[in-house]
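DM between two lab members

TW: hey, do you still have the Ig-like domain-containing protein entry open?
JB: yeah, one sec
JB: this one, 269 aa:
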Amino acid sequence: MSIPVGVWSHESSVFLLWYPNNPPNVIPDYSQRVTFNSSSGTLLLKFVTTADSGVYALQGFDPAFTASTNLSVQGKQQLQILPLSNATGLVELNDTVSLTCSASGSSLNFHWFNGSNDITVNERVQLSDENRTLTISTVLRSDKGPLYCVVSNGVSNGTSPPIVLDIRYGPSNISLTVSPHVAAHRAGSDLTLSCSSESNPPALYQWAFDETTLHQKGSQLLLANVHQNQTGNYTCWAYNNVTLRYDTATTWAIIIGKKNPLRMDGHCH
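TW: and the structure you got?
JB:
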């Protein structure tokens, strides 16, 4: 049964009026957002904001066609991640960190990400408090993030600012190279030994020759005008003064005598 004449109001303010044989009369603020079916009195309100919350009343000039409803519009959340424990200076394989996603609203769903990847529960990663809290134990360097949460409730959604964990790790994957890269080096030539590793903070380097510590430190060992007695094992020690871990790499360098110039003895007749 159609409703011949009536109005829709929001918080007692009329925004739509209709009567027979005429299109609905809608106030400007609603003109682009309202679709109305006069046969059923159905109102479709689009692009809602929190300002649209409140009581909506349908009133026909026949009392049989009077009803009201309450609409609650949940706006986008202001989200943040709050560390529950220290999120800086974490040592890989040692420490645990907990983060909580703070949001207001009802029927909230929390979803966590590490970069573009979903965070899933495993033996190290746990979610609690209806997925509000993320706990990572024995942290790895790959856990650093950026970590963020997305919150939704079917009406709106929001994304928290990202947080990047400061995870201290290494040294690991140490590498030792000799330049120039040849099978043997001539006496009198120059050699450069270079050491590198994955480490945060950057590793400190110490060198040794045949198990004797050398005075030169740093990631490079420069050997100028080498002699044959410098043939032997060269070791690079990489040390992280935060994780208190170290790694070593050793290479063998061969120094051979200088090439003698060609000499000819005798007399020509």
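TW: got it. Residues 150 and 159 are 4 Å apart (CA to CA). The mean pLDDT is 85.
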